[in-house]
Specification:
- The protein is an alpha+beta fold.
- About 30% of the residues lie in helices and about 20% in strands.
- The strands form three sheets. Strands 2, 4, 6, 7, 9, 10 and 12 form a seven-stranded mixed β-sheet that branches.
- Strand 15 and strand 16 form a beta hairpin.
- Helix 13 crosses helix 14.
- The N and C termini lie far apart (about 135 Å).
Length: about 500
């Protein structure tokens, strides 16, 4: 037994000696300076990365932080924004925290700041129609507000205010140096803004946004300091708890590998920094100065009336389709898009689409336009963008007979078949589209197409058997065959200066 232990010691000492020998000389061939960290950091890749990293002096912490005491959903993927479920009418605390470093923003030290809390739409399409959506909610829920402050539970807030015209916003003053908590209540639920189809539709997400301002030289709280927001969904009472439980149970059934793709659920929701919410109801469309200010003024949008000859299919200027000239082109600038909207009787939406080019407007789907403009105007705008012209009730082809060029019956039939007249010139017919099956419409379209003063046309006749002239009446027009061909001539009326038109 002693012999075995001795052999083990010999083997162990030999292994140690071999391992030490194998390490001997490592690094000696390359020299002492081979692994200098200064040389390694001087490599181009490290220089590039180092230059992109901000210096400590350049990092700027947000001056404030807002934390809502409500748990986030566990069913949110890693790189997506957090989602928090709230119960309708329940009070939730938003902690207003001073996040400034020593010496940051000394101008607000010892002073009050103003914060505005809003519940707004997360969906961009609903943001475009926020005013209409809120008016509809107000109509269905008279006297209610979308957002309220629970003042008895709130701490450190001063001079709370609510504007009757802004049902989704509350504002107050607070001191960053003191503990401040605002308890909010959201009274609207997400499914109230979902189009009703078959039941069980998903509710739309909202955003809780906090904007904070300091005083300017005039003592008004208009200088923006910080904004942050988070995504929420609001359910009927106890609905948020059930939804949170459902999401948690779904995540528990997933495999460990699948769970790695999702965020963990946190007990509180930290609002992330964002752009300030614009004061004007439609300013999110007009963040930059408008390129066409003349079209964004309310006076322009209410009194601009398009030309009657172009706004209605009953008034086509030359009797041929005008869709090619009236169609909005993708290359249209914002100003040209505004002109097109005015011309096509969409003046009430010029401010809404003030920054839209032709390509931007044409990218919107029918569902988008219905969401933005409502069902009636949305469908009308969609049809106008797609140049869906109204099909005429009757189409006739007309050719003006040359003076002194009387035609025999056989020649007239040849002309109707596209032959040439006696001088070798082909007969050119013009298409006239009638939306109204009346004689006056025939006269008016003939006057437009052939540049005849409309007030000079006394009567329109049709040449009948044996050359008789038959007065064209509304009933006769209603019995015209579609795509009929006519030659016509004009005859001056003695002592009146007018003319008669004779269809042949």
């Amino acid at each position: 037994m002693a012999w075995v232990l001795k052999m083990d010691e010999v083997i162990e000492s030999g292994l140690v000696h071999d391992f030490d020998a194998s390490l001997t000389g490592i690094g000696q061939e390359l020299g002492a300076g081979a692994y200098s960290m200064s040389d390694v950091l001087a490599l181009p890749i490290f220089k590039q990365e180092d230059s992109s990293l901000p210096l400590d002096d350049e990092t700027k912490n947000p001056p404030f932080q807002y934390v809502m005491c409500a748990a986030t959903s566990p069913a949110v993927k890693l790189h997506d924004e957090t989602l928090t479920y709230l119960n309708q009418g329940q009070s939730y605390e938003i902690r207003m925290l001073d996040n400034r470093k020593m010496g940051d923003m000394p101008e607000i030290t010892g002073k009050l700041v103003k914060s505005i809390i809003r519940v707004v739409f997360h969906d961009r399409r609903l943001q475009y129609t926020e005013h209409q959506q809120l008016e509809g909610w107000k109509w269905n829920r008279p006297g209610d507000r979308l957002l309220d402050l629970d003042i008895p539970m709130s701490v450190g807030i001063i001079d709370t205010r609510t504007n009757p015209s802004q049902l989704n916003a509350v504002e107050f003053l607070w001191d960053p140096a003191k503990r401040t908590s605002a308890f909010i209540q959201v009274h609207c639920i997400s499914t109230e803004f979902t189009p009703r189809k078959h039941g069980g539709e998903k509710g739309v997400p909202f955003r809780i946004q906090v904007d904070t301002f300091k005083q300017n030289e005039n003592g008004e709280y208009t200088d923006h300091l910080h904004s942050a927001s988070c995504q929420i969904k609001v359910f009927k009472p106890k609905g948020a708890d059930r939804k949170q439980k459902t999401d948690r149970e779904k995540m528990e059934k997933r495999t460990a590998h699948e769970k790695e793709k999702y965020q963990p659920s946190y007990d509180t929701t930290i609002l992330t920094e964002c752009s300030p919410w614009p004061d004007a109801p439609t300013a999110y469309v007009n963040n930059s100065p408008s390129t066409a200010p003349t079209f964004t003024s309310p006076q322009q949008s209410t009194c601009s009336v398009p030309d009657s000859n172009s706004s209605s299919p009953n008034h086509q200027g030359d009797g041929v389709s005008q869709t090619s000239s009236e169609q909005l082109q993708p290359s249209a600038t914002t100003q040209e898009t505004q002109q097109w909207l005015l011309k096509n009787r969409f003046s009430s939406y010029t401010r809404l689409f003030s920054n839209f080019s032709g390509a931007d407007l044409l990218k919107l789907t029918k569902e988008d336009l219905v969401q933005i403009c409502g069902a009636a105007d949305g469908i009308r705008l969609y049809n106008s963008l797609k140049s869906r012209s109204v099909r005429p009730r009757l189409t006739i082809y007309v050719c003006q007979e040359q003076p002194g060029g009387s035609l025999l019956q056989g020649q007239q039939q040849a002309a109707g078949s596209g032959a040439e007249n006696g001088s070798g010139t082909p007969y050119v017919y013009h298409a006239i589209y009638l939306e109204e099956m009346v004689a006056s419409e025939v006269a008016r379209k003939l006057a437009l197409v052939f540049n005849i003063p409309f007030h000079q046309i006394n009567q329109v006749y049709r040449q009948g058997p044996t050359g008789i002239h038959i007065l064209v009446s509304d009933q006769m027009v209603q019995n015209f065959q579609d795509e009929s061909c006519f030659l016509f001539s004009t005859v001056k009326v003695e002592n009146s200066g007018g003319i008669h038109i004779i269809l042949k």
